[in-house]
Amino acid sequence: MKHEYEEFLNPSCCAIKACPVDTTVKLMGKKFAMHIIRNMTMFKQTRFNQFLDSIEGINPKTLSVRLREMEKDGLITRKIYPETPPRVEYAMTEKGHALTPILIQMAEFSMKYCCGDVFADGKSRTIKQVLHPKVLKQLQQ
């Protein structure tokens, strides 16, 4: 099956099985996935109830499904501690951390081009103006 983007590809490179943009969107575009990544990256959240309390509009079933999908996709890991009651913590994988620059660019885009929706005064801002320097440094590592 011929794809419309094939004319843009270097024929001597390799065979493309799927559009790279579509592949990334399938990982990131699921409802609440980017919110979970944001909370893990920026707020250092690792627990189910932390996500549930801080992600507006998410319910326990959706959160559970999304965490399982993200684990299956290799974006996060899940660790169960043998305690009573059992404690479960989630951590970002290298693959999950690689989405951080995309998350920052999405935020930068909104702060510049959708500032009326983002800020009460409707004025454009940069990520450096909005985030605490310590948080920004942590995100860029």
* Strand segment tally: 2
- Globally, the shape reads globular
* Helical run tally: 9
What number is the mean pLDDT?
91
Report the portion of residues in β strands. 5-15%
Main-sheet strand order equals 1-2
N-to-C SSE string, H for helix and E for strand = HHHHEEHHHHH
Question: Structural class, from helix and strand content?
Answer: mainly alpha
Quote the distance from N terminus to C terminus.
41 Å
Query: Which spans of ≥5 residues are poorly predicted at pLDDT below 50?
Result: none
Radius of gyration: 18 Å
Helicity, as a percent range: 40-55%
Q: Describe the largest sheet.
A: 2 strands, antiparallel
Protein described:
The relative contact order is 0.10. The chain has a two-stranded antiparallel ribbon. With 141 residues, it is mainly alpha-helical. Strand 1 (76-81) and strand 2 (87-92) form a beta hairpin. It is built from 9 helices and 2 strands.
Question: Which descriptors apply to this entry?
Answer:
141 residues, mainly alpha, two-stranded antiparallel sheet, globular, 9 helices, 2 strands
